[in-house]
Design a protein that fits this description.
This protein is of the alpha+beta class and 682 residues long. The chain has 15 helices and 41 strands. The chain is 24% helix and 27% strand. The strands form ten sheets. It has a nine-stranded parallel β-sheet with strand order 26-25-23-19-14-13-12-28-27. It has a six-stranded antiparallel β-sheet with strand order 29-30-31-36-33-34. Strands 1-11-8-7-4 form a five-stranded antiparallel β-sheet. A hairpin with a 2-residue loop joins strand 21 (360-364) and strand 22. It is globular, with a radius of gyration of 25 Å. Bound molecules: ligand MIG. Residues 169, 197-198, 234, 307-308, 404, 419-420, 478 line the site of ligand MIG.
């Protein structure tokens, strides 16, 4: 049951797709307090209650013990003291005596104090114009399903985007890309996409390609396509201010950019120096900006990542002027402890400043709206702009699209990646914990920068990260300019990397089936254990294991130098240990706590009782997802009685998801596995 409470005059965010009648009663499940400019909700939490949700935020799966602020921020240091990252995912679930979800539909700042100030109290503070949905259900799964139906079906990526992808900030030109491709090919490692970061553009101008770096861009795109490798360019939010640059000129001529207080185009600076921000909250401007993706699509591009769309601001023209004046006044002065730190802070305060966000405006259907009140929508609407354009350009085709900033609702148009993490072991754990929380919010096509974006990775960290990353729909190795090279062939012998990435390919038939079920049935692909074992008090507390699809549980190793880890089994399960798609070891483990050894080159997962999963039986010819079509299958099963599996298969590129022929019911009895745990498909 969903109840909808409207406060003040909320801005239509587009998060919700279902019409729900407004509930008029004053009493929410929670206590509320409507003040002049804000609404505050309170909820008492019992000691054993668990709070799930909040999407991308830092810390554990259980969000208790900290406060989180929805305020999209370009912050590349994701340590546990951070209150905001790139996304605003205002949904959480209280798992207490009652199970209910809360969605706060407000695109400005929202604060979730989940027992930080007082351990027993959940306090949500939001601007006074908002809609609050309370979703009650019998179970965690049911609450999520209702919420997901409320916000609409998740974006479905093309199947090739489930292959292994390589990125790095610093690939400059054709030669660099060729080097990556041959690095993988020479080592016999599958590769499905290579990313173009900002350097492919001419002077960081959106929708341009530097002709010196890529003299024959469309031919190059074509040449890679013949090898089933996709080039995926980045698009940044800011449009360079430069006379003669057509996007700039058109934006100016049609008033498509955000305005400042005085009605002038708001000038900030990002990569290209001065930029204007396309007013993606304005329907016309959005359609115009989205249409620009066509330029790259016509050259064969079929995937994009939208970056810097919080939107990130290095500095604004006005603010910079003020700061430089202040600094000039300090010239030749003897700076003491106070004035020196003031100077330092002054310079740092230039970036992503809330003052700047409060100083520019959108034109939403003729209404002038201050950016700060809709700040969290920018990435969503930039991504919607692109997705809507794709629907026009090629209505029947799936295009890869994901964004850095997001708001609930954007999940219908694209996925996200979790931004600029670090090559730290802790960030591998964080990435594991972010996945189910994102799935609750409808964001299914997602993953983190494997190996870590900032900082120098190490071979062991990259191996462990890949051993988790083979389960994330977006499996992309990405790193920052200036860090140690991170392609898997940069670490000496590639055998272990090749085997792990090949295991991903063997798992794709299962992972893709499960992804499609989650998307089409409004369910979660990654789940905390409590969602499947609600009666099990110990399962409820597990923070570092996940259910993946209907058949398996994973327990990744995420600590340095570990040779294994403790695992909790909520029921008897079959442990599968793989060092390559061909080398598997099985062992049935009983319910309870176990220590398992997991060597550095090993992938381990657990199959539920009376469940199966299918694997592609790879041969050396499988280099991409397209080659999987020719593979035969084998089943891993732990079937003391019987099992049934719905296998989903489609062309991977069209939108005919619902066709009956995509589904195959596969039934098994214990006789099918009379020789053990493996059954080859004839
Ligand atoms: O401020 O385009 O999160 O993936 O490599 C850095 C350069 C800008 C941030 C993205 C990252 C990308 C980088 N970008």
């Amino acid at each position: 049951m969903i109840q909808k409470y409207v406060f003040g005059k909320p801005i239509e965010t587009g998060a919700v797709v279902q019409e729900i009648p407004e509930t008029k009663s004053e009493i929410l499940v929670m206590n509320q307090n409507v003040m002049e400019d804000k609404v505050v909700l309170f909820c008492k939490m019992e000691e054993e209650d668990i709070i799930y949700g909040l999407g991308e935020q830092v810390r554990g799966i259980n969000k208790r013990g900290f406060s989180y602020i929805s305020d999209a921020t370009d912050d590349p240091i994701h340590t546990e003291g951070k209150h905001s990252l790139y996304g605003a995912h205002n949904f959480l679930i209280v798992n207490g005596r009652k199970i209910f979800g809360i969605f706060v539909d407000n695109p400005g700042k929202v604060v979730f104090d989940v027992g930080e100030t007082s351990m027993e109290t959940l306090t949500i503070t939001t601007g006074k114009d908002c809609v609050i949905y309370i979703i009650e259900g019998e179970s965690l799964k049911e609450v999520v399903k209702q919420f997901r139906q409320l916000i609409g079906r998740s974006y479905i990526a093309p199947k090739w985007a489930f292959g292994y992808q390589q990125s790095r900030w610093g690939y400059e030109n054709e030669k660099d890309i060729r080097e990556v491709v041959s690095g993988y090919q020479e080592n016999g490692i599958p590769l499905e996409a290579v990313y173009l970061d900002i350097d492919y553009m001419e002077g960081y101008k959106d929708f341009t390609v530097d002709k010196e770096k890529f003299p024959k861009f469309s031919e190059f795109v074509e040449e890679l396509k013949e090898q089933q490798i996709h080039l995926v360019p980045i698009i940044d939010a800011g449009v360079k201010v430069e006379e003669g640059y057509s996007i700039y000129e058109e934006g100016i001529a049609n008033d498509y950019f955000c305005k400042d207080e005085e009605g002038e185009n708001f000038t900030a600076a990002v990569w290209p120096g001065k930029v204007h921000f396309p007013d993606v909250l304005n329907a016309k401007a959005r359609e115009w900006f989205g249409g620009k993706y066509r330029y790259l699509m016509e050259q064969g591009i079929d995937g994009f990542w939208n970056d810097m769309n919080e939107p990130a601001i290095f500095y604004s023209e006005k603010n910079l002027k003020k700061v430089i004046e202040e600094i000039s006044a300090m010239k030749d002065k003897n700076l003491d402890i106070h004035s020196f730190f003031y100077l330092k802070d002054l310079v740092c305060s230039l970036s992503n400043s809330s003052k700047d966000y409060a100083s520019f405006y959108h034109n939403m259907n003729g209404r002038k709206i201050c950016h700060k009140d809709v700040h969290n929508l920018y990435g969503f609407y930039m991504t919607k702009a692109a997705a809507k354009a794709f629907e026009k350009i090629d209505p029947e085709k799936r295009v890869l699209l994901f964004s850095r900033s997001s708001y609930i609702g954007m999940h219908r148009y694209g996925g996200i990646w979790t931004g600029d993490n670090h090559a730290w072991w802790q960030q591998l754990l964080m990435s594991i914990q972010q996945m189910p929380s994102l799935n609750m919010c409808g964001i299914l096509y997602t993953g983190s920068d494997i190996g870590g974006f900032g900082g120098d990775t190490t071979k062991d960290l990259l191996l462990r990260w890949l051993e988790f990353g083979i389960f994330t729909p977006l499996m992309r190795n990405h790193s920052a300019a200036g860090t140690r090279k991170q392609e898997v062939y940069q670490f000496g012998d590639t055998t272990d990397f090749r085997n792990i990435i090949r295991i991903r390919y063997a798992l794709i038939p299962y992972l893709y089936s499960e992804f499609m079920k989650a998307a089409l049935e409004d369910e979660m692909y990654f789940r905390p254990l409590a969602f499947d074992y609600p009666e099990d008090k110990q399962a409820k507390r597990v923070e570092d294991q996940l259910m993946v699809g209907e058949s398996i549980m994973i327990a990744p190793v995420y600590t340095q130098n570990a040779v294994g880890r403790y695992v909790y089994l909520p029921e008897e399960m079959l442990m599968v240990c793989m060092t390559s798609p061909e080398e598997k070891r099985f062992e049935v483990l009983e319910k309870g706590h176990h220590y398992i050894s997991v060597s550095l080159n090993e992938v381990v997962f657990f199959v539920k009782k009376n469940h199966v999963l299918l694997l592609a039986a790879l041969n050396e010819k499988v280099k991409t997802t397209a080659d999987l079509e020719q593979a035969s299958y084998e089943w891993i099963g732990y079937v003391p009685e019987k099992a049934e599996y719905l296998f989903y298969q489609d062309d991977g590129i069209s939108k005919k998801y619902l066709s009956k022929k995509n589904w195959k019911v596969c039934k098994f009895t214990k006789e099918d596995f009379s020789n053990g745990y493996l059954k080859k498909e004839n």
